[in-house]
Fold this sequence. Notes:
Layout: H1 12-26, H2 29-46, H3 49-66, H4 69-86, H5 89-106, H6 109-126, H7 129-149
Amino acid sequence: MANNNNNNNKSMEEIGRKGGQATAENHDKEFYQEIGRKGGEATSENHDKEFYQEIGKKGGEATSENHDKEFYQEIGRKGGEATSENHDKDFYQEIGRKGGETTAENHDKEFYQEIGRKGGEATSENHDKEFYQEIGEKGGKSRSNQRDDD
């Protein structure tokens, strides 16, 4: 019997590449979307939450090894822009409320004191005396207006 591994001196890689090219020439984007959808459905029927967590973890690790801080800043910016285009003020208020409730359930007074201290230090490093005078004046006016309304 002839050596099937040789297949006229073509490597499996070459055979696969040519087969992929021929398939691509015969099918459009919708074809690939449809087989992708079917594959996703079949996979979801055969795997549980832990499977997806594990492949997500592996994918995240691989991505972090191949990309730098700027990559994550860029995708974060793009995601933020896309989200802001698709959601209104009420959406952000709701997720902020939920996040605040969850954070409050998971942290104690010392946690808030520590993040307050760090925030104060960062703010003081980035602002001058005039900044504090301006926000103090605004706060004083706001408090005065509240008293007048009472």
